[in-house]
Design a protein that fits this description.
Layout (H helix, E strand, L loop, with lengths): L5 H9 L4 H7 L3 E4 L2 E3 L7 E2 L1 E5 L2 E6 L1 H5 L7 E4 L4 E4 L1 E6 L1 H6 L4 E2 L6 H14 L6 E6 L11 E2 L2 E2 L2 H6 L5 E5 L4 E4 L1 H7 L11 E5 L5 E7 L2 H11 L5 H21 L2 E9 L1 H12 L6 E6 L4 H11 L1 E3 H4 L1 E9 L29 H14 L2 E6 L2 H17 L5 H4 L2 E4 L8 H7 L2 E4 L1 H7 L3 H13 L3 H6 L4 E3 L10 H10 L16 H7 L2 H6 L17 E4 L16 E6 L2 E5 L1 H4 L2
Parallel strand pairs: 1-6, 2-7, 8-17, 9-10, 10-13, 17-18, 18-20, 20-21, 21-22, 22-23, 23-24
Antiparallel strand pairs: 1-4, 2-3, 4-5, 7-25, 11-12, 13-14, 14-16, 15-16, 25-26, 26-27
Helix pairs in contact: 7-8, 11-13, 13-14, 17-20
Length: 578
Amino acid sequence: MTRFTRAAVLALLLAPATAGGLVAQQADLVLKNGHVVTVDAKRPEAQALAVRDDRIVVVGSDAEIAKLVGSRTRVIDLQGRLAIPGFIEGHGHFLGVGEAHQIIDAMSVRSWDEIAARVAAAAKTAKPGEWIVGRGWHQEKWDRTPQPNVEGVPLHAALDAVAPNNPVMLEHASGHASLVNGMALRLAGITKATPDPAGGQIVHDAAGEPTGLLREAAQSLVGRAMARASAGQTPAQRQAAIRRQIELAGAESLSKGVTSFQDAGQPYSVLDVYREMAAAGQLPVRLYAMIGAAPLATLATRLPQYRTVGFGHDFLTIRSIKRYADGALGSHGAWMLEPYTDMPTTTGLVLDSPSVLVKYADVAIRAGFQVATHAIGDRADRETLNAYEQVFAAHPEANGKQLRWRIEHAQNIAPQDLPRFAKLGVLAAMQAVHCTSDGPWVPKRIGDERARTEAYMWRALLDSGARLNNGTDAPVEDMNPIPNFYAAVTRRMNNGEYFYPAQKLTRAEALESLTISNAYAAFEEGVKGSLTPGKLADITVLSRDIMRVPEEEIRSARVDYTILGGKIRYTRPETAAR
């Protein structure tokens, strides 16, 4: 595969335009007659571009690009449409996206009754004892509160009634809590006497009985019971299941214009499959994978074994570890400095204690690995910044800005901690769509004042000199970058109201957050994230120009083409018929 250096691109532009030279120089793919937004300050906009092999070779006017059109060149007339760098998902869970296609969808519902109906339908076709799994519910998004309930969540008896012969586990939209039925509780050995595991909580009713709601680490009690049920699978069967989820996640990514995906935490077993597929040229999109669920005792020896940069023609990089400081705001698991407004008995849950995080970070910095820590609550963000600062001080030879350590979500930040991101060089890996999706109930959790001064502080972070990158946390939210872009530039919630709009981004900033800033967060800005000659030809073409249309029309944009490495990997059916 040819790799075009900037020198080679310059030579191409200066080559004599003889007939033979044109044949040698002709492009494989040309996009013309469009609005090309490059996210490259040297040439922010253009009309056309040309691709050879997997690289962009020229960005310019139709007339300039026409010189590279030959008999073997495929030419796409954009007809004024917008071409931008391929979207980069800045934080998601790749296998979770694939799995979402295989389990009960509990996200696209308006009430608990709809979820119960879906579980009942699954129970009719399931074998007795077979696990029924779903994900995506959020009690704050139902149109009415089920009765009876604890904390707005129904009791396990509601699931027992519709699936009496099957264990059921329904994961919260955040992934930081689950609701299970009575059979699942029994299989996990959970009774009223079962103590809370470290970093988790078994929720009880007034009589002390477990309700079926499990927070954070308590989910692993049921997870182990599920694992026992599948213990008979062969390694080949387990690998086939992983590959199928990768295939499903890849197809969804390409259909939504996503050419690169930053996968926020996978075990070694999944990373092994990624490497096998990358070596065989089988990964559907480019992956930047973080190592998750890694025991500290063996981390120092395993990190060098797994370090992978630009493998498989830039389809796989593994150079980051994922840790968790706390849980999620929706499940009352985010670690706050002050108690929750709607649950004053708690300040949330601690997953990695600060001392544990320091130990992981110390191993990572010695191995040259990035650290990406999930921190949603203001206390979690502060403690993560403290831990990073402590490790940086212990390694004065390291430059924090060069390390590009990240805080994933950075959702609630105390005002005095905002300047520390820029000072330490820590990246805020945020999800704009979380703001507009969760905004209607955030003040209920933490009060209006904390919501106004701490929540989703994008403008304040940028103005302080910090760097933002942006994702969707899929499958927590839909991976579609267009609603995410809309959320970033409007902060308009699903109820039509605005969530403290002074913190919104400009359209240029929002597009950067979904392209070049995500590339920067993965040390990949030299090869992707902008439509620059010499970079990978990862391009997304949209049906509507989200950089120009009125705000209310942004969400109507669709992906017409997804181009990955110079190859058209997705074409919208309506586009093909044009």
